[in-house]
Amino acid sequence: MVFSSPIFLFLFLPALLAAYFASPRPARNAVLLVASLLFYAWGEGPYTAVMLGSIAINYVFGRAISRAGGVARRRWTVAAVAANLALLGWFKYANLAAETWFPAAVAAGRWKPVHLPIGISFFTFQALSYVLDVAAGRARVERNPLRLGLYISLFPQLIAGPIVRWGEIASAIQRRRETLAATAAGIRRFTIGLAKKVLIANVLAEPADAAFGAASAGLEQSAAWWGLACYAGQIYFDFSGYSDMAIGLGRLFGFEFPENFRHPYAARSMTEFWRRWHITLSTWFRDYLYIPLGGNRGGPLRTARNLAIVFALCGLWHGAAWTFLVWGLWHGALLALERPWRGRRAPAWTAPFRHLYVLLAVGVGWVLFRSAELASALAYLRALIGMGPGVSGARELGLITPPAILALMVAAIASVPSRRPPTMGGRSPVPAMMGRWLSVPACVAVWVLCWVRLAAGTHNPFIYFRF
Amino acid sequence: MRVADAALWLAFASFLLAGWLPVRLGWAPDPAAAALREHRRLHECPAAPWGAGWTNWTREVELALHDRLAWRPQLIAAHHRALLAMGVSPRPDVFVGPDGTLFYDELRRRGYRPADGYGATFAFPEPQLRLIARVLEERRHWLETHGIEYRVVLIPDKQSVYPDRLPPELAVGAQPRSAAAQVVDALRRWTRVEALDLTPALRAARGLGELYYRYDTHWTPLGVAVGAAAITDWLRERWPHLPPLPTAWTWGEQVGPPYLDLARLLGLEAWYRETVPSVGIENWPPARVVRAGTGTDPIEFTTDHADRPSAWVLHDSFTGLLAHHLAPLFHRSRFQWHTRASFRPADILAWRPTVVMELFVERHANLWRGNVPEVAAASEQGAFDASDRRLVFVSSPPVAEEEGTRLDPLADGWLVQGGMQGATLRLAGLRLEPNADAILRIAWDSPTPIRVEISWRRAGRPIRLTASFDAGRSAWWVRLSAPHDDGPYRLRVTGSGSFTLFTPEARAVPRWEGSVAGEPTLPEVP
Asked: Which end is more exposed in chain A, N or C (fewer Cβ atoms within 10 Å of the end residue's Cβ)?
């Protein structure tokens, strides 16, 4: 179940809101937990047991770590990390390992593919952060399994983030207050995310899919660039839209989730890009892997090694394929190369060039990220520099359509940070109040447009299968 | 501030409830009628499996909800109209020309690139052409051994007659021959099959008026008349004593295409109307209908001219009106859909025609689905895909045929449901749109034998069809083809039990609910 589906919007969410706000406060966590499990079970069915298993073992490990001291505490922590990584490793990487090391068995059908439970990367990282924070004394252990279960399974951030640390919402799980202003802000944020996903990302997905789909057969250079631009817009607005919806839904239920994106395409270095892109993941890797590895304290070579390790794992975290590994290494290499210039103030006139460098570097990365295999990524990169066979053009593939142009223009504008509107002076509440009132018709317009798009997605007539 | 936030909450709650509650409360139109127009079954919400099959079940529930979204047809129409206003087709298998003319691309359904899909640029791989030629030559040879002639007619797609109306991205500089021309050339080169490509005749007649509908794949009555004249001239080369098709035509206007297939594909059949020339051929005495063509049954004609040949014509949807123009040429003629009844030697021998004529529409010539199963099967297996660069398969998704479930008129149908005990049920004045082409289907679950009778007038002649069924579950369906009918249709059913009356033309049937007992007579439809 995704947030932009009719079943979520018109059935799950209204039913949950009604049940939640009709319930007495002490019962609201239970309502959310049941709803979150149902949300997960809707798509994953029996694999909900994997998530329940993760909740159970991390509850046990958390209690054991908090009770133990010294070496025993360390051993419990290692065991907890190993258990979580084993869970993630088996479900996410067993197929890749089998294809790599036992290709004959896979080809002969002797290997039964392992199902990848959706969101396992997210909830495993959340669970890991819990046990590691408890072990490090940064967070208190949770004795109530329902609360820990709610933390790991909370549906808004369950399948696509943001990755929330236990310390960030532990107090809200225990006690929170849903105010009219906060919940209305949640509705606005959810609506922004819905618009990003349905009205921009989904529109850009069509030309992006067509371009990447035709890459192996040969794309013309202009088609390749257009397809890449569409994909860059699609992935940002899809992912950040989902994070917006998650943050908005969190506010509806009284939670404050961390921000996950801050206009990443406005960055002027790859280092800055990673401070703006998937922030909760990059900070997770920074805090739980990069810094424990030594961070940048061991000299340039050691820093480069640490960056390579972190970004290789970051790439594999995104998917079990060699393209993701190369994507991660590409980003890690760029960050390592930028290290010597870090902290230096660049002349103002270089800003456009630095910005262009980031867009190109990220774009190359997206080719690796989007392509199904390295060969097709190379074919796409060749098309970008005009060295492909150039069989299919943008017009022939129908890539450049008015909706795609419109969506890309909106995406480009929305990718640039906007300055805060000038205040009307002093502490006048007029602009804020006007904004709140204006948000009502704006939100209604977005909902209607999204509803139209969703309904259109269900249209599939059988005119020529009549008889 | 609080009021603004409260207003936002109120609006949000209304939005969340607007998806399905209006349908439940009867405030929004019944989505069943819309699904009928899409010719598929509504997805039903099955019982939860609680185990294996869970994922399929949740998907079915979601699809059932999708089908019941409030104002779904209106929302789809709004979306598609907005895209069309921007010059973008909402579906990959329908192209929009710069002047708004719609074109159908059957190949796109199968994942081919757009430029491969229309007749003007499609290039057959030679193995495919050779297979087509071999199959048709085998037919010709078999018929010849039984003293029957064999002829093939290719009816071009709209895009082959009006390539200038295609979207610019499909315009190619060096335009290869049309698919129809390629097939006819192959038949001439490798076989003794007599073949006629109607493309030149139709292209030459473009100045007369619109030969094809803008929002439908089919030819207009004017296009049919031009095609009939060309076929008649061609047949007269072989049988010179056949009369020429009179050139005196009465001109009129036809409002609304017969079926609006392309508009239906876009969910916009209610929005599109067009006026096209309608021609009547003067001094062309109609052949007598001796067997009404309903369902899979062929339509048969006869004339008093015993010296003329008899013809068995296999055709598809392009042929409805053409049959009435061609039938007077023959002593006996029999027109049968070859998409439902392919080339059947035993039937042909039993009827003993002078000539068997197969009318192929160009877009079917690309795939030969149904009418030449040998070629269709090879195409389905991708036997020809690799031999021509323009047939490169790309991964852009084809129209998802597996989505949903095809509506099977013989097994499913609803719209009007009820029941009765030992009664006679009459439905008279069934109203169809001018030139509509509709299915009327009646299904019974009856403890007693059922008798169904439908009567109407076609070309001034009364027609009555009757059918009797034993007790139990049974179904009967009639194809109503208004271009040939005067109406009104009168339906009379005698028996007991529950029934379902189905038609894709929702406006054609009065809404009927509940049980009917005794001797009910439904009011005339105003």
From this structure: C
